[in-house]
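Give me the fold.
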Amino acid sequence: MERKTDITEYVVKAPVDGEITAAVIADIHGSPWEHLISAVKEAGTDVILIPGDVTKGHMPDAPGTCDFFAAAAAAAPVFMSLGNHERMSHARVKEAAAASGVTILDDSSAEFRGLTIGGLTSGYVYEEGPMRQAHLRKTPPPDLLWAERFAALPGFKVLLSHHPEYYPAYLRDLDIDLIISGHAHGGQWRIFGHPFFAPGQGFFPKYAQGMTDGRLIVSRGLANNGPAPRFGNRPELVFIKIRNDA
């Protein structure tokens, strides 16, 4: 495992048989990924959950993206929701992922070993092309009717929701057992352990890392190729142990 990537583990109780080890791979943005797949295999991962932003901007065909999809799907079943970067090239990302065996959850859900896994698609809508100052705008709402329908489903529900800012605004009061997000990049800079800035939340964001209310897990993400490099905030690969005796 690459030294500059932290591994964080959570344990979540759910009515499943045995134990499910889920790896959360968030916000790669086209950066190197081979060490992540090695760590996923070493952990005996049962399922890979991707809450969006595998791609970088309007470049879904960037070198390595399709290779990542194929390698991830070969390591374990993969379920992925669409982040704001995937929304810039929606159809092409879905086609590339599906061709590799990745299950895209575009405001849809699927069953896996007693879990109902849903994907809440980012509310951003773009023409094909680069994002234009989207980080300065309030995050557009997702499909709230679909979110309510998902919450009404039976069983233990896991929602991949790229934007953690959706949690206080739309998701907190819904009957969803576990919500997994990214997007905030851990605040990009952490000052004395506190996140500095996150798109859609502004300065000193509340939902940029860690677990909230025992049901929202926000990954700090894995890319370090933005306009401002990470500071005090190493990339993070998350593992979630889902089991009956947590």
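The domain at 6-243 is CATH 3.60.21.10 (Purple Acid Phosphatase; chain A, domain 2).
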